[in-house]
Design brief:
alpha/beta, 6 helices
Length: about 180
Amino acid sequence: RFTVSPGWRKIGGMLPKEKISPAIAEARGLGAGPYEDCNSPPRHSAFNTPYEFAEFIATVRELSGGKPVGFKLCVGRPEEFAALVRAFVEVGTAPDFITVDGAEGGTGAAPPEFSNRVGMPLHEGLTVVKGMLRGAGLRSNNGGQVKLISSGRVVNGFDLVKLLALGADVCNSARAMMFALGC
């Protein structure tokens, strides 16, 4: 079985103390305030390997009564995404959708050494994900089983058309609106 290299599990995002509500503190087991900045774990406690992740997807789908299940990623090392695809095929379950985010910009929670420096740009990441899913029979030329959502510096109609032409089924576009609001 394939495993993902342990290096990706070491650094998570930073949640500023100003954004920690009582509900978030309870969910993260932070106790009573005042709170300090909270390092978000870069992994999920329910799985450690691509195979466990595929099984987790099946469990979430079952527990939700069959609602669509998906995840978001920025492609860093294509071989790690290939390991996920192989696990989906071997376990016999795959997500209903994958949101492919680009490395352009990222989140304010990202460690400074990661922002704009780690991961593939959206166009390349989307192409890699689409190609690997097609190669594994999890996506056909007309969309197929796993739907693709693109996200990351999508600011105008030209960006949308290009991403749809590259294979996205849906595009998330919030950046321009966030900038317009002064974020």
